[in-house]
Amino acid sequence: MDMISKFIESLKSFFIEIGELSYFTGKFFVEVFKRPFEFKEFIRQCYYMGNKSLLLVGVTGFIIGLVFTLQSRPTLEEFGAASWIPSMVSVSLIREIGPIITALICAGRIGSGIGAELGSMRVTEQIDAMEVSGTNPYKYLVVTRVLATTLMLPLLVFFGDVIGIYGSYLVENLKADVSLTLYINQVINILEFSDVIPSTIKSFFFGFAIGIVGCFKGYNCKKGTAGVGKAANEAVVFISMLLFIIDFIAVFVTNIFYDL
C-alpha cells in the first residue's frame, strides 16, 4: 500500500506540474504581444545563446560527420555503394541527427543555464524586486529568452549540419580523393524540400521547448541554494525527454503528410 500511495502521489505531482507548465506556456502567448517589447534584452539573449554556442555545436557537428562517415564507409564498400556516402550522410544529418543532437547540446548548455540563472534570481528575490518596482519580470526574463531560443536553435542546427557535412567530405577526400565540388553536387542532388522543411520546422519547436521549460523551472525555483541546482538539473532532464517526444510527433506527422 505504501508503494501504491507513493506512486499515486508521484503521478499527482506530475500532472500538477504539467498543468502549471501549460499555464506558464499560455501566459507566454499572452505576454509576447503586449508592449513594451524588450528588444535590447532579446538581442542580448540571442547573442548569448547563439554566438556563445557556435563553437560547441560546430565541434560536435564536425565530429559527428567524421565518425558517421568512417563507420559507414566499410559496410557500404562491401556492397559497392561507397559512392552513396555523401547522399546518405547529408540526408541523415539534415533530417534527424543534426536537429536532435544540436537540441540536446543546447538543452545541456542553454536550458540548464536559463534554469540556474532565473533560479538564482528567484532565490535572491531579484524577481520579487522587479515586480515591486513595476517591471514585468515575466515579459523581461521569460519572453525574451523563449523567443531567443526559438529563433537561434534553427540557425545553430543549420550551422551544425554544414560543419558535419564538411567533416564527412574531409573523410571522403582522404579515403577516395573526392573533390569538394563533386561532393557538394551529390549532396544538393539528393536533398529535397521534404528533407529540409520538416527538420527546420521541428527545430523551432525544439528551441521553444528548451526556452519555455528552462524558464519554467528557474522562474518557479524553490527557496534555497539547493533549489537552484535542482532547477537546472530538472530543466535538462525534462527538456531532453520533451525533445524526443516532439521529435517522434514531428516524424509521425511528416510521414502522414507526405504519404497523402
TrEMBL record:
Q: Where in the cell is it found?
A: Membrane
Membrane topology annotation? Multi-pass membrane protein
The organism's superkingdom is given as Bacteria
Q: Which residues cross the membrane?
A: 54-72, 146-169, 196-216, 236-258
Q: Please provide the record's keywords in A-Z order.
A: Membrane, Transmembrane, Transmembrane helix, Transport
Instruction: State the similarity comment.
Output: Belongs to the MlaE permease family.
Q: What is this protein called?
A: ABC transporter permease
